[in-house]
Amino acid sequence: MIHNPVSASEVTIRSCGLLNCDRHRLLLLMLLTLALGCGVAKASVLQKNKAAPNPAPPLIKRTSTRTEVRRLGYGGTVTVVGAPVGSIVIEGWNKSEVEITSEIELNAPTEADFERLGAVNNYFLDSDVNHLKILTTGMHDKPFMRRVAKDFPKALLGLPWRIDYHLRVPASTDLEIHAGSGNVTLNGVDGAIVFTAPQSEASLTLLGGLFRSTVALGKINVTIPNRSWRGSGVDIQLAAGDLTVELPAGFSGDIDASILRSGRINNGYVGLEALDGTVMNERVVHARAGVGGGNLRFIVGDGTISIKKKIEQ
């Protein structure tokens, strides 16, 4: 085998070529690193020099009170459609008229915004001979906003507001109460009553007639002051929360209470006796008090039902 000898000069040339190649790579790497460092430094400087966003101005709160009176004959109907947030208090009295007192609370960043908000977050009355409707309008009602406030500023849409209603109605009145999120108080009204709310803490003193209620979440306290129920009965359904029923001593009526999913029934009323063929336990009660009478039906999905004696004052 014949080996071609490699001269020292050729080795030197090849070595220099490899060395030059490595130097070029090293130089390119150094240039890229320098460029990257300059970019990061520039971005850091720009970030530091970037102006911080201006904080939103603090909200100003303004509350106004409005009172109106409308005549309503015996056995009339009052419908209340409340605000998304706000309380509703309804009391019965001996006059043939309805008194509506409202407290409207608005929040806005500037004084100029209150006029725009007040024009939409309000209520109006719709009445005929025997039916009075109290209808809340506001930013929550998209069809209403498209109809009357197409150019309403988007920056104002999420601002908090509320309306609290206090009504005095004839003692014999049918009621439709559609509340938002807030406390509801009812006292001294005898009639056909419907009450709905997505979330509420309600205090209900019921005299008679027909009462139906559906509440998604909350706490409901029901007081029946009379010893018997005059009317068709009571039907209260609460998806989640606590329901308390207070009955007077010597009450006569049929009690139908049940827990659908989780929770328990706390029966602290002495005198409830299970109806024939039924068993009372912590989830179901079908019982009669006294000689029986109007049917009182209470259903809770998740929560508690407490039945107890009304404390006399």
Question: Can you tell me about this structure?
Answer:
The chain is globular. It has one domain (60-309). The chain has a 16-stranded mixed beta sheet that branches. The protein has helices at residues 8-49, 111-120, 142-148, and strands at 60-71, 77-81, 88-93, 97-108, 122-127, 131-137, 161-170, 174-178, 181-187, 191-205, 208-223, 230-247, 253-267, 272-274, 284-289, 295-309. The chain is an alpha/beta fold. A hairpin with a 3-residue loop joins strand 5 and strand 6 (131-137). The chain has three helices and 16 strands.
Q: Overall mean pLDDT score?
A: 86
Largest sheet report: 16 strands, mixed
Q: How far is the N terminus from the C terminus?
A: 125 Å
Order of helices and strands: HEEEEHEEHEEEEEEEEEE
Helix content: 10-25%
Q: Tell me the overall shape.
A: globular
Write the layout of secondary structure elements.
Elements: H1 8-49, E1 60-71, E2 77-81, E3 88-93, E4 97-108, H2 111-120, E5 122-127, E6 131-137, H3 142-148, E7 161-170, E8 174-178, E9 181-187, E10 191-205, E11 208-223, E12 230-247, E13 253-267, E14 272-274, E15 284-289, E16 295-309
Parallel strand pairs: 2-6, 2-8, 3-7, 3-9, 8-10, 9-10, 10-11, 11-12, 12-16, 13-16
Antiparallel strand pairs: 1-4, 4-7, 5-6, 13-15, 14-15
